[in-house]
Amino acid sequence: MNRYLLPLSVLGTVAGSAVLLKDYVAGGACPSKATIPRKTVIVTGANTGIGKQTALELAKRGGNIILACRDMEKCEAAAKDIRRETLNHHVNARHLDLASLKSIREFAAKIIEEEDQLHVLVNNAAVMRCPHWTTEDGFEMQFGVNYMGHFLLTNLLLDKLKASAPSRIINLSSLAHVAGHIDFDDLNWEKRKYDTKAAYCQSKLAIVLFTKELSRQLQGTGVTVNALHPGVARTELGRHTGMHSSTFSSFMLGPIFWLLVKSPQLAAQPSTYLAVAEELEGVSGKYFDGLKEKAPAPEAEDEEVARRLWAESAHLVGLEMSQGPSVKVQPLPK
To answer: In whole angstroms, how far apart are CA 148 and each of 16, 81, 172, 308?
Structure first.
């Protein structure tokens, strides 16, 4: 044997240690073994990435899973994959375009009409660092999809969630929220030069503020809401960043990315944990970094900013203001 070649047993040990190190750095598996038989769950953006893996994990635990996606061909394919892998036939695809208030209202109306209960809402869908696009209703795309769309969707489903209590809302934010700032004078980047990174950070900060204010309004209802940073994952979310197509990133930073960037399966563990863990019953208004509760950025804790953002958001999506946890819906303008 070539004396410069390591024995296979040593190579195996090294490789195994590297995988364990990667799992430790990136966060581990959901520690809860709780099941959710016959519990109805909605996961937005569930046709790929973290959303699909979250839906898969919750389907394994017996849930009645609704995949809410814009691309129905991919959504149906994802639902089929999950049914095949889990042998859970209660996995269905529904159309939801978070860049359209009309689509959100139609989706919510069908859920209210067709589903007896709703126990878990996972607001997962997102776009990241896209060009300066706008939604159907004129919102800056990242603010519109990541935050405004989920704000409206959640409010429209609140009565169903409360009627099904105990129930949970999980909002996917990002560590990027710490670099965010809510510019109430220009939420949709109509006055400033567009900065796609800053727009993404603003949208993720808005999600944490929304979580805090919604938790305050839902006290005593049996509905909890928490936000989380799932970790940096290798998914389609980063397609606009150029990170994966960069030669420098691929060759120079490849080992670092391998160590720090999660697989979609691992990145789905925090969402799964917040959705099922019995020890989190009653925990609300918190921010989780992976599987651990953590203090968010100072601006994310500002109650005045949170209430002002809620009021502005309700106005922009056509919801009447309410002092309590229920929000009345105004008719759509003709």
So the answer is: 43, 30, 13, 14
